[in-house]
Design a protein that fits this description.
The complex is a heterodimer. Helix content of chain A is 73%, strand content 2%. By secondary structure, chain A is mostly helical. The termini of chain A are far apart. The chains are: A mainly alpha, B mainly alpha.
């Protein structure tokens, strides 16, 4: 085999490993978690062998072991394996074929690199080739670690749900699984950083349940206000409206779980909470559809706001979904402290009113709003189909032809303002309806506070609430 | 061993990924709006939209994502986007690219049976 052949074969094998790890990530379920954990150490050891062989094959200087990122990852994986042996969890059993394939592919690539080095077929060290190969190894480990972690997360939800149904307080494997999930998250973070990711960002939390939801909602509220004040673009308002719609949908699901667990009165949910939240959700989505018309495919959304939205998406999803379908109320109740989640969502609904006012202000007052000419023409014509406007050209034909960004025509702005008014009214009504959630008996509140000692996030939330709520909102337009 | 070199096609490929994601989000939301306020597709659409925003942020300024895809099934659009990302060279991948790949794979898994 020539040096070129070895080079191409090695590259192909690394591509196979990369794709195998992606496929595992797209397929894993909670049931796979034990097998994935049993196999994970083998993958990391194989990656470390390949890492070493790559250095030898290219004649690259070897970094001190303590400085090499792979050394750190191997130590983390070995420590996880030792804990697994010590605790007996997940114990003996099947391994995962997909991760085994990744490890075997790494082994084959190692053999190629080693043979190439021994035969002298490898050329002089090529720094970019070595870096590319190592980045691909790291990226594969990043994909793999994420897959194992999400499968483990789903497995832990399943354990908790099974424990709830059987009235067991401490299901076997739960504590060990939570520990492993935290350690895999650290591994994933480190591998991701070496694979080309940014350092730790908002939304990369490893908390779960009510704490994660609370952190996400408070973070979102703060960031939405900051971004809409500093950069009131259509793309930013679109994201804000869609997140608010998803929060309303989440509130419906969590409050329904509250009914099943006795934390929310069924009558109030059925006749006040659910209808008003549905109206608010619909108002947000209808406004979002209007804002979407103003967004050009190249328009960027504030990156920090996107991260905050990601955090809300992840926190809501882990509580309210089972795969692609909504989780049942009993399942939601088994995953989260319903009382704490309800309080967080109630705060979020209050904050939503202010976001609604902000977006309405942007719709009515921001003269810098623009939109693609073709969409603006369609919307303006749809808004003003009356005879007296027949001769009005809302957008210059040359702009329509080139689909340039143009100032938002008056009829489009009027439509946006009307949709935003509807949001303000619906969001305010939802907050009024949610006031009934405050009627928790004082003795129950005290007992809950004793059980759920305030977290840092809770304190931040309360501090934030003090900042956000005193501002009186103007009355909505009739 | 690997010979990944800076690939001039990367911005174009990434732009196509962005367009697929943007259209997938729009289609998911259109279906969600039809289904009503409790539809799980609202959250699914939000997840796709935020990934599209992250992918767009990886593109150089001024790169147009191009025409709207013909396909209108959100899951198929996501699968097509993931397959396109496989063609982006390791050495040409912009910072943050692996996270976008993982997010797309997460959405595909979440939408699966």
């Amino acid at each position: 085999m020539t040096g070129g052949d070895a080079h191409r074969l090695g590259e192909l094998l690394l591509q196979v490993a990369d794709i195998s790890a992606r496929q595992a990530l797209m397929e894993v379920t909670g049931d796979d978690a034990p097998a994935l954990l049993r196999t994970w150490g083998e993958v990391v050891e194989a990656a470390a062998d390949l890492w070493s062989a790559l250095s030898q094959a290219t004649g690259a200087p070897t970094a001190p072991p303590e400085a090499a990122p792979m050394t750190q990852l191997v130590l983390m994986a070995r420590a996880l394996h030792r804990t697994s042996l010590r605790t007996g969890w997940p114990g003996d059993g099947a391994t995962d074929e997909r991760l085994t394939r990744v490890a075997e592919t790494f082994d084959r690539a190692t053999a190629v690199a080693t043979r190439s080095a021994a035969s002298g077929a490898a050329g002089p060290a090529d720094a970019s080739d070595l870096e590319a190969a190592r980045t691909r190894v790291m990226r594969t480990l990043y994909f793999g670690a994420h897959g194992v972690r999400v499968a483990l997360r789903d497995h832990l939800w399943d354990l908790q749900w099974a424990a709830t149904r059987s009235h067991r307080a401490d299901p076997p494997g739960l504590a060990q699984g939570q520990d492993a999930a935290q350690r895999l998250a650290a591994f994933e973070q480190l591998a991701g950083a070496h694979a080309g990711n940014h350092p730790k960002r908002i939304g990369d939390q490893v908390t779960s349940g009510a704490v994660r939801l609370e952190e996400a909602l408070v973070g979102w509220d703060i960031q939405a206000h900051r971004t809409l004040a500093a950069a009131p673009t259509a793309a930013n308002v679109l994201l804000a409206t869609r997140v608010q719609a998803s929060i309303a949908t989440a509130a419906i699901a969590v409050l329904e779980a509250g009914v099943r667990s006795g934390r929310v009165e069924a009558d109030a949910y059925q006749h006040r909470l659910s209808p008003t939240l549905e109206l608010a959700q619909t108002a947000w989505t209808q406004a979002a559809a209007r804002w979407a018309e103003l967004v050009h495919p190249t328009d960027r959304t504030d990156r920090t706001m996107v991260q905050a939205a990601n955090a809300v998406h992840a926190a809501v999803r882990e509580l309210t979904h089972d795969g692609a379908i909504p989780a049942g109320p009993e399942v939601v109740a088994s995953r989260v402290d319903i009382g704490a989640a309800t309080r967080s969502l109630q705060q979020a609904l209050s904050a939503a009113v202010d976001v609604a006012y902000l977006s309405r202000d942007i719709a009515t007052s921001d003269r810098g709003l623009t939109g693609p000419a073709q969409a603006m023409t369609r919307r303006a014509t749809a808004e003003r189909p009356t005879a007296e406007d027949d001769d009005v050209v809302w957008v210059d034909l040359s702009d329509v032809h080139a689909n340039r960004l143009v100032p938002v025509p008056d009829p489009v702005r009027d439509g946006l303002a009307a949709a935003s008014d509807t949001v303000v009214r619906a969001a305010s009504t939802a907050v009024s309806a949610a006031a009934c959630l405050d009627q928790t008996p004082p003795e129950e509140e005290a007992a809950l506070d004793a059980v759920h000692a305030p977290t840092n996030a809770t304190r931040r939330h309360k501090q934030h609430a003090r900042v956000m709520t005193p501002t009186p909102s103007p009355a909505p337009h009739p | 061993m690997a010979s990944d070199v800076v690939d001039q096609e990367t911005p174009r490929t990434l732009a196509a990924v962005v367009r697929l994601l943007q259209h997938a989000a729009a289609q998911a939301w259109a279906r969600a709006d039809d289904e009503g306020p409790r539809s799980p597709l609202h959250l699914f659409g939000l997840g796709i939209h935020t990934v599209s925003c992250e992918a767009l942020a990886l593109l150089p300024d001024g790169v147009d994502p191009g025409p709207v895809p013909v396909e209108d099934d959100p899951l198929r659009l996501l699968v097509a986007a993931e397959e396109l990302t496989r063609g982006i060279s390791v050495m040409a991948q912009p910072p943050g690219f692996p996270r976008v790949v993982v997010a797309i794979c997460d959405l595909i898994r979440a939408a699966g049976p």
